Description:
Elements: E1 3-11, E2 16-19, E3 50-58, E4 63-72, E5 80-87, E6 100-101, E7 110-112, E8 120-121, E9 125-126, E10 129-135, E11 149-156
Antiparallel strand pairs: 1-2, 1-3, 3-9, 3-10, 4-7, 4-8, 4-11, 5-6, 5-10
Amino acid sequence: MAATFQFSESNTVAETVTDGIxxxxxxxxxxxxxxxxxxxxxVGQNSFSKYLRAKFSSTFTEISNMKFWKSVGTLVTGxxxxxxxxxxxATPSQTGTGDSDIPTTEGxxxxxxxxxxxxTIVAVGYTKYIRLQLNTTGSSxxxxxxxxxxxxxxxxx
Length: 157
């Protein structure tokens, strides 16, 4: 039988975990499945940071070689997406994270660790956190940005 995968997002000061999120929209609020029309990012500001984890369940022997990157979607003028792997959870905020630009190829993808810091998951559980944040500048156009696709890849035994 194959592993079941879902993204989980952590929010709020006390860390509320939601498994199986339906979107990864970034905006001016710390919430899951965010509606960007309700919580737009003001030009020149940042989105709230997002703390994601992959959760693997069902029956499997081992998950390894976990990678994460932005695989599809063009950035608009003045827009960057920052990303870091294997970070600790912190209360999401709009303060710049100082992370690097998100990788855009499998060859430069973020290497993701299991929650225990190892390179493999051998029982139902989570990975370490992936932190994402969308940054804009004064030259960014107002309105919706282009849709992006993020890829999480792994090997399964």
